[in-house]
Amino acid sequence: MRYALSIPIGSLKMFDNTGKSYVLCGVSKSIAANSGSLTNCITLPNKTGSDVVIRGFIIKYKSGLDDCLIDFSTPSSKNDPLFFGQIELGGIGVVRGTGNFEFLFIPGTTSEIKRGENLDILIQTFNEPIAQRDISIICLVIEKKV
User: Fold this and answer.
1) Per the confidence metrics, is the pTM higher than 0.70?
2) CB atoms closer than 10 angstroms to residue 128
3) How far is the C-alpha of 141 from the C-alpha of 23, rounded, in Å?
4) 15: alpha, beta or left? (left if phi > 0; alpha if psi -120 to 50)
5) What is the mean pLDDT of residues 113-122?
6) What's the pLDDT score for residue 11?
7) What is the rounded CA–CA span in Å between residue 21 and residue 44?
8) What does the alpha-carbon distance between residue 120 and residue 135 come to, in Å, rounded to a whole number?
9) Do the strands 135-143 and 118-124 form a parallel or antiparallel pair, or are they unpaired?
10) Considering only CA atoms, which of 62, 59, 50 is closest in space to residue 83?
């Protein structure tokens, strides 16, 4: 039996006094096994027309990719990264096809994507290569009010 949790995106406004809610989505491109370093795998462009604050992620991936390292980057987050240190894909995402999902909540208001910037999802592979669409991501963002 499968259960689904449905939360209207508009209800995310309760976290602070911000504007509209948006969902940015993307899927992976191919990366060879044993990539040796973090490589841009998914790009989520901010086409909302305003600066947005990241509220959280839902990440699904193909079985066998649990040990891949993942990082998030924007041009404006080089000196203030979203995550400090390394994390494995299996630590923040869920294997595709399980019927489950994890919502990785990002607290605070400093995790922004400026208007026109991209959020790049970087992956380092080890034993398994990544094919197109092996990883999918949903990024929930809220318009930042000035």
Assistant:
1) yes
2) 17
3) 6
4) alpha
5) 94
6) 47
7) 15
8) 13
9) unpaired
10) 59
The pLDDT value recorded for residue 18 is 58
Q: What is the mean pLDDT of the chain?
A: 85
- Closest C-alpha among 145, 132, 136 to residue 24: 136
94 DSSP β-pair partners: 60
In sequence order, the 6+-apart residues with CB closer than 8 A to the CB of 69 are: 38, 86, 87, 88, 89, 123, 124
For residue range 42-84, what is the model confidence (pLDDT) as tens digits? Answer: 999 999 999 999 999 999 999 999 999 999 988 877 777 777 8
b vs e for 72-81, b when ≥16 Cβ sit within 10 Å of the residue's Cβ?
A: bbbeebeeee
CB 49 within 8 A of CB 117: no
Cβ burial 84-123 (10 Å sphere, 16+ → b, else e): eeeeebeeebbebeeeeeeebebeeeebbbeeebbbbbbb
Residue 1 has pLDDT above 80, yes or no: no
22 DSSP β-pair partners: 141
Q: Which DSSP string do the residues of 44-99 spell out, in sequence order?
A: EE--SSS-EEEEEEEEEE-TT-TT-EEEEE-GGGSSS-SSSS-EEHHHH-EETTSS
